[in-house]
UniProtKB/TrEMBL annotation:
Pfam families xrefs: Ala_racemase_N (PF01168)
InterPro entries: Ala_racemase, Ala_racemase_N, PLP-binding_barrel
Protein name: Alanine/ornithine racemase family PLP-dependent enzyme
GO cellular component: cytosol
Annotated Alanine racemase N-terminal domain residues: 8-221
Domain of life: Bacteria
Entry annotated with the keyword DNA repair: no
Organism: Mumia zhuanghuii
Region feature Disordered, mapped onto this chain: 350-375
Cofactor: pyridoxal 5'-phosphate
Annotated SUPFAM superfamilies: PLP-binding barrel
Taxonomic lineage: Bacteria, Bacillati, Actinomycetota, Actinomycetes, Propionibacteriales
Length: 375
């Protein structure tokens, strides 16, 4: 089997989606499944929809095109503000988009009129994380003008937290969004039908609060794909954390000194070398994958193994007492950053299935080859 590769378990993705949909539905909150970390995979989107997602969201029009070409006919939300150069594609291929700029709304309006259609828009509100969003004191005015633009239909408000600055989406923030919804409805004279309160970081709040206010949608990516929540990267009870596994092949296995020798400068990626004080020897393996393909800091090695370092094309691992040799495959778990980069790499094969195809985690030897020094 080709390596490196990402093994994708679609059953796990459906399970995670179904579990979150079931927990949020009694609170009146829909789930929009976010496919951007999976590069708009139609298979992943279909797994989310089988789990009950009300629609699919993505940040890039290239991914949206892949979704549509792959047969995704569900509601698709563009979750990054449209580029002016792509507004015609946005109107053609998406059902609604998240927006912050009047000039973009003008361009979307013209594109929709030109296509003799209507495009739904949601205005994003800045509530403190300092990524995208309209200032609170400008929301009502922009909403009024958006509602008047031909070819557009203002359907809601939204916000995004815990991405750039880690600001927590708590009750105070969500109450503020609810209050703005009511102000906008009073100004435009119509009820808003989409109040998208945030992303997977909102789950702690949404599942604990007794008052979700007007929040009726969450845009869930990491929690569905990895089974974790972004605020503390903790596994979510009842969700599977093994939907994605990165498999890499070993190209060298040798016992080497724990310490380098010779004068030292910066590493290949401009980092100052770490001053490792471990003594003795390390049973070290190299996997044929590197920083060009994955964020090594986001890899979860098998028990008893430790990721030591990475260059562009080499991942250096302390394999401990595992019985591995050249040609063996090693399976890693991934964090969100590692998943995104691995999915983006053209050198990593993506294999979607409904059953696990990854190799078993190598077993430690019953008798170690070397003393476990410096560990």
């Amino acid at each position: 089997m080709t390596a490196p590769r990402l093994d994708v378990d679609l059953v796990a993705i459906t399970h995670n989606t179904r579990t979150l949909v079931a927990r949020l539905a009694p609170r009146g909150i829909r789930v929009t499944g976010i496919s951007k970390a999976a590069l708009g995979s139609p298979g992943v989107a279909a797994a989310m929809l089988r789990g009950g997602a009300s629609g699919i969201g993505d940040a890039r029009m290239e991914n949206v095109a892949r979704l549509r070409a792959g047969g995704t006919d569900a509601t698709v939300m563009l979750i990054r503000s449209p580029m002016l150069s792509q507004v015609d594609d946005v109107v053609r291929d998406t059902d609604l988009s998240l927006n912050t700029e009047a000039s973009v709304l003008d361009a979307l309006s013209a594109a929709a009129v030109g296509r003799r259609t209507t495009h739904d828009v949601v205005l994003m509100v800045e509530l403190g994380d300092l990524r995208e969003g309209v200032p609170v004191d400008e929301v009502v005015d922009l909403a009024v003008t958006a509602a008047r633009r031909p070819g557009l239909r203002l359907v809601g408000l939204g916000t995004n937290l815990a991405c750039r600055s880690g600001v927590v989406p708590d009750q105070t923030k969500m109450d503020e969004l609810t209050g703005l919804v009511e102000k906008v409805e009073g100004a435009v004279g119509d009820r808003l039908t989409v109040v998208t309160g945030g992303n997977s970081a909102n789950l702690d709040w949404a599942l604990a609060t007794s008052d979700v206010g007007r929040i009726d949608d969450l845009r869930l990516g990491e929690s569905i794909l990895l089974g974790t929540e972004p605020l503390h990267r903790r596994p979510i009870d009842g969700l599977r954390t093994d939907a994605f596994t990165l498999v890499a092949e070993l190209i060298e296995v040798k016992t080497k000194p724990a310490q380098p020798w010779g004068a030292r400068g910066q590493t290949a990626f401009g980092h100052e070398p770490e001053r490792d004080v471990r003594p003795g020897l390390v049973r070290q393996a190299i996997a044929a994958i590197g920083r060009q393909d994955v964020d090594p800091d986001g890899l979860v090695a098998p028990p008893g193994m430790v990721v030591l370092a990475a260059s562009s094309d080499h991942l250096v691992i302390d394999v401990g007492d595992h019985d591995v040799t050249v040609g063996d495959e090693v399976a890693f778990g991934l964090g969100y950053g590692a998943l995104v980069r691995a999915m983006t790499s053209p050198f990593v094969t993506k294999q979607e299935s409904v059953s696990r195809t990854t190799p078993p985690i190598p077993r430690p030897r019953s008798a170690p080859r070397r003393p476990a020094v410096g560990r």
